[in-house]
Amino acid sequence: MRLNSVAPRTCRDRSKFCVAPSAAWPALAARAVASSTSRWGWAPAGADVSEPAKAAIAVRAMRRRMVRRAYRSWTSTLCLSLSVGVYGSGSRGYSQTMGSIDQDTLKKLSFRVWSFKMGEVVALMIHLGDRLGLYEALAGGGRNHAAEIATTTNLDERMVHEWLLGQAAAELIERHEDGSFEMSREAALVLASEGELPFACGAFYGGETPEGTDAIVDAFKSGAGFTYGDMGDRSADQLDRMNAAWLERYLPETVLPSLSGLIEKLEDGADVADIGCGGAIAISSLARRFPNSRFVGFDPSEPAIRAGRRRVGDLQNVELHIASGEDLREPQMFDFIMTLDCMHDMAHPDRVASAIKAALRSDGIWLIKDMRCGPNFDDNLNNPMLAMMYGFSVSGCLPSSMSSEGGMALGTLGFPPVVAEQMVNDAGFDSFQIHEFESDPVHYYYEVAH
After folding, report:
1. What are the sequence ranges of the domains in the chain?
2. Interval 402-443: pLDDT, tens
3. In angstroms, rounded to a whole number, what is the distance separating the alpha carbons of residues 80 and 300?
């Protein structure tokens, strides 16, 4: 497998990206995932199936085979990228100390480890389904839409819908063509029948700290969400460890050189902002590589900024602020602005986009990194970690994007290209380009300019 980048792909056909105006953003993601088609291609044995129905079943069966093939391809790419990224088997000097690396073994082991992580996240979702009465509501029989389950359980509909999609991705319940969900009798015995021998939910306590799980439960009940700052130092440190290699090395060595003329600007001296900078991993790395440039990090999370200030140390060309992207005040202040894996976490990313439009100089570049996904549930079925993505959303990204009044509630998979392009167009930008890298099958990188 080539580990260098592929050519950037420009979105020329804007007609396929026609979506609702900005006023409709809060409902956009929910409408998108509700418009998908059924995953399964089968009919009950002995059923009287009409010719049109047979054709539809055949199409669904073909789609399922295609998903399986894509699954194998996606898995191979994901495992290798998570294991070695763009550095090959010699990453961090391992080839010198451990001898040659068998890439097939590495891919299989990496996928096995990440499968355990998916199990950890899905285990939390099972605990929430049991604790909040969601399984009990589903076990009532028949098909139910998210709104009906939310009404029955007196929970927030957006949180419930995201949880239901995750359960369908984990194949614990079924999602139908009309966007409704259904629990089988067998699943009801395992997940919703306390006192019966098959019942398993009692074994799941959540995996989170009690305080963390309580915060998620409160988000379901109130629909108010919580911020990454509310999650505390432990969460901030975990996010930094998970993203460090990608921000310290992959970003400057693979992504930034693909952006038009950016490296030369940074070498000469540029003003750079990192919005949602977290623990300042990206800008502290860039500040050391490009000492002539000046870097400013913004993040509303106090624990993240504390960690960032420790990481920055005595670097003279970096400053950090406990603030959001909406707080950008100076016009045409920056040559380069980054929002790395955080637009879907923001309550009001549209406002941040407008603030960036004003703060970016006329020849500046805005880099957005976000999840590689489609707008519909079925578009993402080739992702073998889909259930984990929805678990991440329910336990962090979605509550964050609901943490202030009127938040858009996008969630982990709520910022696909169709949403990203419409949002930057609404903010007044004219240039939108998608960069895809073979060595990162998890993210899209959007290059935006005036």
Report:
1. 9-14+239-375+414-449, 34-89+102-222
2. 999 999 999 999 999 999 999 999 999 999 999 999 989 999
3. 34
CA distance 404 to 215: 15
Whether residue 123 contacts residue 204, with contact meaning beta carbons closer than 8 Å, is answered with yes
Q: Which two tokens stand for residue 190?
A: 């395992």
Is 234 within 8 Å of 301 (Cβ atoms)? no
Per-residue pLDDT reduced to its tens digit, 173-209: 999 999 999 999 999 999 999 888 889 998 887 777 8
Q: Summarize pLDDT for 3-31 with one digit per residue, the tens.
A: 333 333 333 333 333 333 334 444 444 44
Task: Please name the amino acid found at residue 197.
Answer: L
Report pLDDT for 82: 52
Which residue has tokens 């068998």?
102
The pTM score is: 0.74
Where in 49-178 does DSSP place strands (E)?
174-175
* Lookup: tokens for 20: 């609702």
**Residue 319: phi, psi to the nearest 5?**
-135, 145
- The DSSP call for residue 331 is T
Residue 311 has what DSSP assignment? H
Range 9-14+239-375+414-449: architecture per CATH: 3-Layer(aba) Sandwich (3.40)
Which secondary-structure segment (H or E) carries 446?
A: strand 440-449
The DSSP element (H or E) to which 222 belongs, if any, is helix 210-222
